């Protein structure tokens, strides 16, 4: 990489002196990029170098970087009405229109929406709302939330407690009480549970993984469990795509035991899997959906929850001490909602969901050409989210010792070739913008292939 200029070094010095970063880690920040502009699927850093953005910001910039149109919408809305609250007694047109629009796009049974500023706040709202719902129905003990290993739901206290990535916990213990985790439907690494020790057990991985939920509900007592929370496809964990029989069985189990489903669609909503929302492909609907990221393509912060009609009714009919006392100053922020509406217009006008599905097929076909490498354990994808898991031994699926830092070394090699993303350990993630050009998708795969060979040798 080129030697940074004096000015660039000064910016980085100021960064280190004053900015605390998300997941702050000084050693990981040693060769940080200061991004200064972007266009389509390309990010530019302060040295003027261009990088293919293989993860669309953080999975969110689906319409691509540099859409001046969204800035103009924000400016118009700011000039007219920059802020007004949506506390009871107040509303504003962009928030109303966005909620109405979402009711058309979302699952048929979900017609009411509350807005947050991001994904963790959305999950907080969902977790509180399932507790509220059961309390209103007379089941005040139904408070527990069952999540999954490797699930990621954000880092506020309840969202962190629902998150099943244990490295997020230790320095912030104790977690909120009432959260537990079961194994996720990770076909590549799923271990048959003890309950399936019997060799005559013919259940599939999807069925066994779903049945772990039923075992947990029965163990805890259904009268203490409020909800199951899960990402339709686990994103941060390294694009873990569940088998097709997983979610329908989860729905059946939850219905059987009066447990609600919170679908965390912070990554999957608004097209990432090739559909507006992800669970429809498996023929089920959640009780609450949480979203963020792609609703504004990251141009301004916005998230939220959609609740089904029976939960909406519980909220609507609550009075006095039973009222739904949940609120954010920035809920229904007029500028953010106006930008979201314009962003959804772009997605529709340019057919970006169909484009994401098509690009996803191309990305997958190209990634499959890497699968023959002796250290590519698995290539997996759904829609325009994909991952390549690198392993020490393909037969045993053994991971590399963490001290070998294979993932970071591959990441470093891809950056030298002009591509940027986020990894989970030795799992390389792709979640590019929906406007990425075909030749850019092909180049991304080429860069990863070359980088794997640089670090791990040629097949
Ligand atoms: C599935 C999922 N849920 C929740 C979050 C948290 O969202 P935020 O960072 O906006 O709080 C993320 C962030 O990546 C996510 O991927």
- Roughly how many Å apart are the termini? 27 Å
**Overall mean pLDDT score?**
96
The CATH class of the largest domain, by name, is Alpha Beta
CATH topology description of the largest domain: Aspartate Aminotransferase, domain 2
Bound molecules: pyridoxal-5'-phosphate
Q: What is the helix content? A: 25-40%
Whole-angstrom Rg? 22 Å
Cα shape: globular
Question: If helices are DSSP runs of H or I spanning 4 or more residues, what is the number of helices?
Answer: 13
Q: What is the CATH architecture annotation of the largest domain?
A: 3-Layer(aba) Sandwich
Q: Give the strand tally.
A: 15
3D architecture notes:
The chain has two domains: about 140 residues, Aspartate Aminotransferase, domain 1 (Alpha-Beta Complex), CATH 3.90.1150.10; about 280 residues, Aspartate Aminotransferase, domain 2 (3-Layer(aba) Sandwich), CATH 3.40.640. Helix content is about 35%, strand content about 15%. Helix 7 runs parallel beside helix 8 and helix 11 packs parallel to helix 13. The longest helix has 19 residues. The mean pLDDT is about 95. It has a seven-stranded mixed beta sheet with strand order 4-10-9-8-7-5-6, with helices on both faces. It contains 13 helices and 15 strands. It is of the alpha/beta class and about 450 residues long. The protein is globular, with a radius of gyration of 22 Å. It binds pyridoxal-5'-phosphate (PLP).
């Amino acid at each position: 990489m080129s030697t940074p200029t004096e000015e660039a070094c000064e910016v980085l010095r100021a960064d280190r002196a004053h900015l605390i970063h998300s997941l702050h880690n000084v050693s990981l920040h040693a060769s940080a990029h200061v991004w200064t502009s972007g266009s389509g699927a390309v990010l530019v850093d302060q040295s003027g170098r261009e990088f293919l953005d293989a993860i669309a910001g953080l999975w969110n910039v689906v319409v691509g970087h540099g859409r001046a149109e969204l800035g103009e919408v924000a400016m118009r809305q700011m000039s007219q009405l920059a802020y007004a609250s949506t506390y009871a007694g107040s509303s504003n047109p962009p928030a109303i229109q966005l909620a109405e629009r979402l009711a058309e796009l979302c699952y048929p049974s979900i017609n009411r929406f509350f807005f947050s500023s991001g994904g963790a706040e959305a999950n907080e709202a969902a977790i509180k709302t399932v507790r509220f719902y059961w309390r209103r129905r007379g089941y005040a003990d139904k408070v527990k939330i069952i999540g999954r290993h490797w699930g990621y739901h954000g880092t506020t206290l309840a969202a962190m407690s629902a998150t099943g990535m244990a490295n997020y916990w230790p320095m912030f213990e104790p977690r909120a009480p009432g959260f537990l985790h079961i194994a996720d439907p990770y076909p590549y690494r799923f271990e048959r549970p003890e309950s399936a020790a019997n060799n005559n057990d013919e259940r599939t991985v999807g069925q066994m993984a779903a049945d772990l939920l039923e075992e947990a509900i029965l163990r805890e007592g259904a009268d203490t469990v409020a909800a199951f929370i899960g990402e339709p496809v686990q994103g941060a964990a390294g694009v873990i795509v569940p088998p097709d029989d997983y979610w329908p069985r989860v729905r059946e189990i939850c219905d059987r035991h009066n447990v609600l489903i919170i679908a965390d669609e912070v990554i999957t909503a608004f097209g990432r899997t090739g559909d507006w929302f992800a669970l429809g492909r498996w023929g089920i609907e959640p009780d609450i959906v949480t979203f963020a990221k792609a609703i504004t393509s990251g141009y301004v912060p916005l998230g939220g929850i959609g609740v089904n009609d029976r939960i909406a009714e519980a909220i609507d009919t609550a009075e006095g001490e039973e009222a739904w006392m949940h609120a954010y100053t920035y809920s229904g922020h007029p500028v953010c909602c106006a930008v979201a509406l314009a962003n959804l217009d772009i997605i529709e006008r340019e057919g970006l969901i169909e484009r994401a599905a098509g690009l996803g097929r191309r990305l997958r076909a190209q990634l499959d050409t890497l699968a023959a490498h002796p250290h590519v354990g698995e290539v997996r994808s759904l829609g325009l989210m994909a991952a390549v898991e690198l392993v020490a031994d393909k037969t045993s699926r053994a991971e590399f010792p963490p001290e070998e830092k294979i993932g970071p070394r591959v990441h470093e090699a891809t950056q030298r070739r002009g591509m940027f993303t986020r990894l989970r350990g030795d799992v390389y993630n792709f979640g590019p913008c929906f406007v990425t050009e075909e030749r850019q998708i092909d180049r991304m795969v080429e860069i990863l292939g070359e980088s794997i060979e640089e670090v791990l040798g040629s097949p």
